[in-house]
Amino acid sequence: KYDKRISTLYGYGMTTTCYMLSMKQYKCSLRAWRKRQTRPLSEMLPIYFAVYTDVLNVCSFLVENKINHYDLKCDNVFLDVLDQTTPESEFWSPSSALALPFYAVLGDFGEAALYRTEKDSYTTRNRGTEFIKSPEMLKVAYASDRTRNTYDRRRTAGCNASSDVWSIVCLLYELVTGEFLFYDDDWVRFFMRVTNPGVDLLSPANEEALRDYPDLLHFFQSTLVRDPVRRPTLTGIAILFDKLKQTMFPALFPPPPRGSGSSTYYTPAAMRTRCLCYQIRPPPYHAWQQDTTSS
Fold first, then answer.
1. What is the pLDDT of residues 238-284, one digit of tens each?
2. What are 23's strand-pairing partners?
3. What is the rounded CA–CA span in Å between residue 170 and residue 168?
4. If 0-12 CB within 10 Å is exposed, 13-18 middle and 19+ buried, where does residue 70 land?
5. Helix H or strand E encompassing 14
6. How far apart (Å, rounded) are the C-alpha atoms in residues 122 and 119?
7. H or E segment at 12?
8. Is the torsion defined by CA of 281, 287, 288, 293 positive or negative?
9. Cα torsion angle, 200, 202, 205, 211, sign
10. CA-CA distance, 257 to 260, in Å (whole number)?
11. Cα 3–169–112 angle (5° rounding)?
12. In b/e form, how buried is each residue of 179-212, taking b as 16+ CB within 10 angstroms?
């Protein structure tokens, strides 16, 4: 299926031992672009916010087509120029957050799963990159073990789209700082930090990196919810991030006029999406609170 939000597949072929994909070659990955950034965070943060908005927009493809990606990270977001005449210097160091010289597409669906119903959307297979995995993905091997003390027959075993929400929030931290949020060379310490409710999710080093941006720090504290049932949806993350942008950079990202319909995520249909966020201010007009039962 051709869609500008995902990487273009031209064709494929198979042999007795392997398969081959013919795909468009993009200019670079988001991670490669981020590694080239040398300007201070205070100058680049509005641009990172604009890029992340683009990433959230392409991730709407997952919601619309009932796909769980399970490996959302900067390495799997590709960038390409909007205009072939754009100077190289402008591509690698954009001058404005209001007119990015590139567009983002989502790629690498090797870990992804397509589903038809909510019941089908759960996986009990370990998928994705270790340091962006959700708590439930890290524990997925035990999800269907009925002998464990914490087994709850009322919950569907495995991971679903909520796991992508965890990863997309981690992607924002990676974009802003250039580092994985939960990277640790001690795997046991990493596992305990992510899965143990008694351990703080954000380390002192994480908080220090965001010390000058308390609203952004609060966004991470509010959206990184270990319990997938209480975690926002992808659409919910987009709504909350819109509000964060408007709070931190009101001149660059003003709120849309009431009833203008200028933002995809402020439509009534989007607002009705279940979004359980108990520690962060709701988006404008409280419209998303009207229906907390639909998904």
1. 999 999 999 999 999 988 777 654 444 433 333 333 333 333 333 33
2. 9
3. 5
4. buried
5. strand 9-14
6. 6
7. strand 9-14
8. positive
9. negative
10. 5
11. 45
12. ebbbebeeeeebbebbbeeeeebbeeebeebbee
Residues 6+ away with beta carbon under 8 Å from 223: 165, 169, 231, 232, 237, 240, 277, 280
- Per DSSP, the three-state class of 217 is helix
**Cα–Cα–Cα angle for 194, 197, 201, rounded to 5 degrees:** 45
Q: Which residues have a catalytic role annotated?
A: 71
Q: Calculate ∠ Cα 233-1-174, nearest 5°.
A: 40
Average pLDDT of the residues of the chain = 84
d(CA 148, CA 153): 11
- Sign of the CA dihedral 129, 200, 181, 250? positive
Q: What is the DSSP letter of 223?
A: H
The residue whose two tokens read 């209480």 is: 230
CB neighbour list of residue 42: distance below 8 Å, 6 or more residues apart: 212
CA dihedral 262→102→173→125, nearest 10 degrees, is 90
CA 34/CA 73 separation, integer angstroms? 12
User: What pTM, to 2 d.p., does this model score?
Assistant: 0.82
| 65 three-class SS | coil
Residue 143 to residue 163: CA distance in whole angstroms:
14
The per-residue DSSP string of 219-253 comes to: HHHHH--SSTTTSPPHHHHHHHHHHHHHHH-TTTS
Length of the chain: 295
Mean pLDDT of 149-163: 68
100: left (phi over 0), alpha (psi -120 to 50) or beta: beta
Give the residues across from 68 on adjacent strands.
113
CA distance 199 to 87: 47
